[in-house]
Design a protein that fits this description.
Strand order of the largest sheet: 3-2-1-6-5-4
CATH topology of the largest domain: duf1285 like fold
Largest sheet: 6 strands, mixed
Order of helices and strands: HEEEHEEEEEEEE
CATH superfamily of the largest domain: duf1285 like domain
Strand content: 35-45%
């Protein structure tokens, strides 16, 4: 398990990578897997670190920009580190939707704005346990 200082290092790397240039190019980074870090995204969208909610929205946003889904799970990735985290359901939640002409624009709980369409399809599955519909929106890179 990674130490708390690693979370600070990840935040610093994410901030440096993001500084005014949009999303960092996590798809180009291929560091060795460094282990697991005690970060969990709960099904209700709350990001937890070592059992406590991460209270700073800015820090959650930074972490969200270096989140990547690999075949072996969700990871926070920097040029130097790759740490697996746990995601209970989906990493992001749509918290706002608005209509612009004939398009639907969603805002996620980490501040991404996504226009539903060919590049960002909305899919609906049925929850096996409840029988309820489960809509999902592709945000970016398999997330």
């Amino acid at each position: 398990m990674a130490q708390s200082g690693t979370a600070d290092g990840l935040a610093a790397a994410a901030a440096a990578a993001q500084s005014g240039r949009g999303l960092p190019p996590v798809h180009l980074w291929h560091p060795a897997h460094c282990g697991d870090i005690d970060i969990r995204i709960r099904a209700d969208g709350v990001w937890m670190h070592e059992g406590s909610p991460i209270g700073r929205a800015e820090l959650v946003r930074l972490f969200s920009t270096i989140l990547r889904l690999d075949p072996d799970g969700y990871h926070l990735v920097t040029p130097a580190e790759k740490l697996r985290i746990r995601v209970e359901d989906l990493p992001f939640r749509a918290v706002l939707m608005r209509r612009e002409d004939d398009r639907l624009v969603f805002t996620t709980d980490v501040g991404d704005e996504v226009t539903a369409g060919t590049d960002h399809p909305v899919t609906v599955t049925i929850d096996a346990a409840t029988g309820e519909p489960r809509p999902a929106l592709h945000v970016r890179a398999g997330l």
